[in-house]
């Protein structure tokens, strides 16, 4: 059998919603997929579709040249990968850790992998489980480019867009935490907005289309802000931060009049006020990035 006709194979460790989606996409693409999860029983649907169930993580990683780990965080991936038998079985093989955690944990895992002769790529998934295997999936990777290229054909089975962000191993996690920061602060703003609206007799459903209108303003603003911040101009020509701080104050008062916790907005208003106190009241909200970076 020529090298090109050998069926590619992968091991997936972790069968939460995301791990199951990854394993399912590998199976759909015809990749021989071995699976393992700490709690037994999560592999039933996958084995029904042809996945091989391993009885231990060491057996799982020994089954494939490439192991994809997708568990809740790096405490969990450490708990699996750093068992002696698993570490030994991984020697000379590749691990791609798609669990979410900090850049520091990615660097620590890379250092551990290097000490044990394990080839290591770090990664992050930026879209929900149902996108996996579709064009909408977004994967970020970092680590040795050659290693990434070697495994790229198998990873392509996961669908969507894959971006190799560079050799510095913490880079995918750096993007991940920054992008999750955008997501969670936006969702916190939305849930808070709904609480305020409901207190005024507006239902979440009534507010939703208008909230989507606000969300639609953001993408071009992100691009504008990025250029503004990278250039250090912090332009407030169209919306000076004095005006922005005034609207934040309205949100705080309207919330607290209904007994709604406004602590997040108070913090944001405080940051804007610090910008103004430093003599930058004519600048845009983008100037906050400097104030919070130098406490
Ligand atoms: P979870 O984040 O809830 O992770 C569940 C998985 O982690 C299960 O396989 C669970 O095993 C395992 N786990 C937890 N603690 C341990 C441990 N100490 N030892 C071994 N395994 C452990 O679910 P997801 O599958 O959704 O997420 C996995 C990763 O993917 C996370 O880092 C998440 O941030 C990321 N992600 C998820 C997205 C999604 O839409 N779900 C979107 C983008 C990223 P057990 O079954 O035994 O509890």
UniProtKB/TrEMBL annotation:
<dbReference type="InterPro" id="IPR048666">
    <property type="entry name" value="RedAm-like_C"/>
</dbReference>
<protein>
    <submittedName>
        <fullName>NAD(P)-dependent oxidoreductase</fullName>
        <ecNumber>1.1.-.-</ecNumber>
    </submittedName>
</protein>
<dbReference type="Pfam" id="PF21761">
    <property type="entry name" value="RedAm-like_C"/>
</dbReference>
<dbReference type="GO" id="GO:0016491">
    <property type="term" value="F:oxidoreductase activity"/>
</dbReference>
<dbReference type="InterPro" id="IPR036291">
    <property type="entry name" value="NAD(P)-bd_dom_sf"/>
</dbReference>
<dbReference type="InterPro" id="IPR013328">
    <property type="entry name" value="6PGD_dom2"/>
</dbReference>
<dbReference type="InterPro" id="IPR015815">
    <property type="entry name" value="HIBADH-related"/>
</dbReference>
<feature type="domain" description="NADPH-dependent reductive aminase-like C-terminal">
    <location>
        <begin position="169"/>
        <end position="293"/>
    </location>
</feature>
<dbReference type="Pfam" id="PF03446">
    <property type="entry name" value="NAD_binding_2"/>
</dbReference>
<keyword id="KW-0560">Oxidoreductase</keyword>
<dbReference type="InterPro" id="IPR051265">
    <property type="entry name" value="HIBADH-related_NP60_sf"/>
</dbReference>
<dbReference type="InterPro" id="IPR006115">
    <property type="entry name" value="6PGDH_NADP-bd"/>
</dbReference>
<feature type="domain" description="6-phosphogluconate dehydrogenase NADP-binding">
    <location>
        <begin position="10"/>
        <end position="165"/>
    </location>
</feature>
<comment type="similarity">
    <text>Belongs to the HIBADH-related family.</text>
</comment>
